[in-house]
Amino acid sequence: MTELMQLGPTDVRDFLKSQGWSVLDDALKDRLYVMSNVHFPRRQLVFPMDQFAPDYADSLKLVVERAAEFSSNSYQQIVSKIQSIKDDVLRLRVAFDGDDSALPLSFASAFVQNTEKLLKAAACTVLRPRTHHPRLTLSEAAQFVDQTRFGQTELGSFVLHVACPINALALQGMLEFDGPEAPFVRSVTSNLYNALSQLAGAIEADTVDQLVDKLKASEMPLISSNLCEAISSMHDEKINNRLDLSFDWSLLRRPTFLISNRAISFQRDYFSRIEEIRQELRSAELDQVDTFIGTVEALEGEMGGDGRRYGVVVLSLLLREEGESVRARTSLSPDDYEKAQAAHMQHGAYVSVTGRLRPGRQPRQLKDVSSFQILSRSRPVI
């Protein structure tokens, strides 16, 4: 009865309406929801509009039992659907042969972390589509993950249940799969569904090369190396598991795009191909030509024939888009090197440098420097 008391009357009403039931207006003045269905002309479902009415739980128990009877769902499934009526729900199922009564603790812990990474990668792609996100630290992506809920695990090997309230965030992304008015959360979950479907479909159809070429050429790629990394990390070599992902869409907003009721399945032999795709997408990261703000970390120049130093300096550059700092090595002329020396000697001094920042491991390479200036001592805003 406790879980029934937690079901809101409007959520129960909205669930029943999504199943073809309609409200009889005449009963509203008596503080009752009386609902009828043309497919069950002799039946009505009745429950109080007030959650704290004395017979609220008893009435809901009858309503849920009848709803289960009229559908192919169990009593508990009906309760679960009402509880998540405002949510898009992602289920991740780990399946493997042998003793499936336990998971390695390290894998279980990593699995939860990679689920969070998967959601962040999908959110970052909606906000800024690219084949590789240097870091998954966009504040909107973090807010999205903060709003998701870890539900009760379910029977059937190990099933992780993640609920995403579709109206939790009032944000706007660049990708809108479910129409221009789609809530941000629905854009993220629909992007994730489509990305995973394309990934599994390309492996099964042996069209991985075509998929990678298409993603590299696209201005708004759906799949990132980060998403591939999260999925490939959900496979454990010891238990050699497969992974099934399924979606339950909020009944308040049915998807407008084509969906399948079948789970998206990644078989054991898929994960090595996903890792190959990850590496290909990661290598597609492009040079960044921009003016960067940073600090001078090290001076490694040498003395020239004219008695002036020039050459290599190591900078710490602030990347505004990623919201992070990276170390970069560049080579400066004697005039610019002199400015770098002055900045290095001043506590809190910042420099502005224009050039082409290459991708790769740190320290990264900053090429074609066209401008190098000392800024004020105050910390710049990024």
Describe this structure in words.
This protein is α+β, with helices and mostly antiparallel strands and 382 residues long. It is 35% helix and 24% strand. The protein is built from eleven helices and 14 strands. The chain has helices at 2-5, 9-18, 56-70, 75-83, 105-127, 139-147, 184-204, 208-217, 225-232, 270-283, 334-345, and strands at residues 22-23, 32-36, 44-48, 87-95, 149-150, 158-165, 242-248, 264-266, 288-299, 302-303, 309-319, 324-332, 351-357, 364-374. Strands 5-6-4-7-8 form a five-stranded antiparallel β-sheet, with helices on one face. Helix 9 (225-232) runs antiparallel to helix 10. The longest helix has 23 residues, at 105-127. The chain is elongated and about 100 Å long. The two termini are 52 Å apart. The model has no long low-confidence stretch (mean pLDDT 87).
Note the topology.
Layout: H1 2-5, H2 9-18, E1 22-23, E2 32-36, E3 44-48, H3 56-70, H4 75-83, E4 87-95, H5 105-127, H6 139-147, E5 149-150, E6 158-165, H7 184-204, H8 208-217, H9 225-232, E7 242-248, E8 264-266, H10 270-283, E9 288-299, E10 302-303, E11 309-319, E12 324-332, H11 334-345, E13 351-357, E14 364-374
Short description:
Helices cover 35% and strands 24% of the residues. The longest helix has 23 residues.
